[in-house]
Amino acid sequence: MKVLGIETSCDETAVAVVEGNSILAERISSQIDLHSEYGGVVPELASREHLKKLNILLQECLSEAELGFGDIDAVAVTAFPGLEGSLLVGLTAGRTLSFLMRIPIVEVDHVEAHMFAGRFGDMDPPPGIGLIVSGGHTRLVLIKQWGDYLTLGDTRDDAAGEAFDKAASVLGLPYPGGPAIEKEAAGTDPGVFKFPVSRLGDSFDFSYSGLKTSVLYKVRYDLNEKVSEAQRRQIAAAFQEAAVTPLVKNAVRAAEKYSARWILVCGGVASNGRLREKLRDETEGKPFKAVFPPRRLCTDNASMVASCGEFYLNNT
Ligand code: KG4
Ligand code: ZN
Q1: How far apart are the C-alpha atoms of 191 and 241, rounded to whole Å?
Q2: Which residue of 64, 99, 181, 236 has the fewest CB atoms within a 10 Å radius of its CB?
């Protein structure tokens, strides 16, 4: 079954054609340059850009796969959560195609779809733990079966990626902040500055607002806005360490508690090299392993949406 995936929930316009666990073609257009001067996504600009790009990407993707609209068996489209105006662009395109071509449409949960990025690789069957860490979400999920989940924890305030973006902005680094912080932190001692690592008792929840405020206060009051290049690198490294530590701790605790076979990390922050390294270290010798999809499938993309849609078409 060839499923066309459409993703327009935030600042990436993406389409893909997926068949089983092979990606026949995928196209993605990032709006990072458009939003970077504002330090974050401007919703109205995002939806206009999706409108401009979606049809072009659809044509390119189908022609790369050497397919016409008539060869597509179903459409899967991100329906929620996301920016309303942006979601509407993808949804309208998907519903129109479904109506005109008389093919089924599956309206997909974007957060669940992130976990389907893992299904393009070799994965043992569940139970597993899903850690979805992106600009909008920080969620820990028990995957009892694909399609059957228990949410174990969520952020109580900011998302992890949002904290990376805000800390980067305080340090005068470009948007998106995650890759910029990781670059600054590379090879730098994370122990020169100390930031609080959130601990919320026995819960699997996360909190990032305290960490974000600590970075702000450090720069604004302790250093009086005068941050040397070396200090910027040291603050980035200390922040990164404090940001990834609770992700690793909660995920490992959850895997132990629920006898999981793996911890699947997805969403934009899953690209972070320090998170990958720390989780690999902490799972060594344990009966579960860390699984990271390739980086291009961690950030928003349409292949994960198509894969999620295909699963529901085959299993409901
Ligand atoms: O999944 P995604 O592309 O979009 C959302 O659904 O939010 O995630 C984007 C987020 C941004 O906050 C970005 O700063 C963060 O992922 N990110 C990273 C890295 N690459 C992207 N955070 C930490 N380290 C990275 N290397
Ligand atoms: Zn996402």
Answers
A1: 9
A2: 99
